[in-house]
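We modelled the chain as a single entity of 97 amino acids. Its sequence is:
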Amino acid sequence: MVGEDYRTIGFTFNRGVMGVDLPPAEAGSLDGAMARVGLPIYLVDFGRVPNAGPVRRWLDQPIEQRVHTFYVEHNQWRSWDAVVFVETIGPATLARR
């Protein structure tokens, strides 16, 4: 089995198209907070977040996160080992050769 080598990685985004147009994320959500960083794509490794301090306290409580057109609230710290943020998402396309 994978055991301690297994890592969970969450995914979040700010805006884009996923069957419907998705406006910018709500400011108080995980998605909105990560969008304010200003980078188009990045990963936050929770293993590098100090065990005490404002970032850890914020992540270790129920926070809204967008799932398609609605938001769900859950504890990010206890859900993932890392989160990938992408500014704009769109439909998948076939790669051309």
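As a brief sanity check on the tokenised model: Helices lie at 30-35, 54-59, 76-79. The radius of gyration is 15 Å.
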